[in-house]
Amino acid sequence: MTLERLHARISSCLRCDYHRCRIYAVPGEGPVRADAMVVGEAPGRTEDEQGRPFVGRSGRFFDQVLRQVGIDRGRLFITSTVKCLPDHPGPPREDSIDACIGYLHQQADLVKPAMVVLMGRIACRAVLGIEDLRVATAKTWRWRDMLCCVTHHPAAAMRFPEPARSFRSDWRAIRRRLDGLAKHSPPEQHVRRPRRR
Q: Is the separation of the CB atoms in 174 and 34 below 8 Å?
């Protein structure tokens, strides 16, 4: 299985009801051998329209923070816990998280990043089984033999001063840690745009 084939499978997935209202599934994007894999919650409306992760308001804020701390977004493989726009307000339903989590495991195994960054409570709970971000952000973890750290979701960091401070501080620490890790080979390909459904 290649990442491109996996993303084609995600783009035609019918495992939960979210496929009924999507424009695009949003499998993720970035180098096939990324320095870090970043995991958010679920696509928003802008992501659903473009088929790309973190391109809406919170994505622009995320890009701004990356620039401030000196991380090139091209070093990151960016995805989410749930791959389709939820058809309701609030966090994704558990059945949709369960339907998508296997895809996230496969992505991690194919990308083999030096580090996994979980952004927000939903990603943290789905991957590590931890509800409390205060507990999760206090240390680093191991997941599928990869270094794993947790930070706030950009949407929370945009709205509240304390998460904003923590988010910037976390990404400065992530930058230092990435710079200290052995670099991967230069990527030979990036993931293509998903097919329209």
A: no
Is residue 119 within 8 A of residue 151, CB to CB? The reply is yes
- Structural domains in the chain, CATH included, are 3-180 (3.40.470.10)
How many whole angstroms from its chain centre is CA 39?
2
Task: Give the contacts of 160 (CB within 8 A, at least 6 positions apart).
Answer: none
Q: pLDDT digits over 12-63, tens only?
A: 999 999 999 999 999 999 999 999 999 999 999 999 999 999 999 999 999 9
Tokens 């804020």 locate to: 61
The per-residue pLDDT for range 130-143, each reduced to its tens digit, is: 999 999 998 999 99
Backbone region of residue 103 per phi and psi (left: phi > 0; alpha: psi in -120 to 50; beta: other values):
alpha
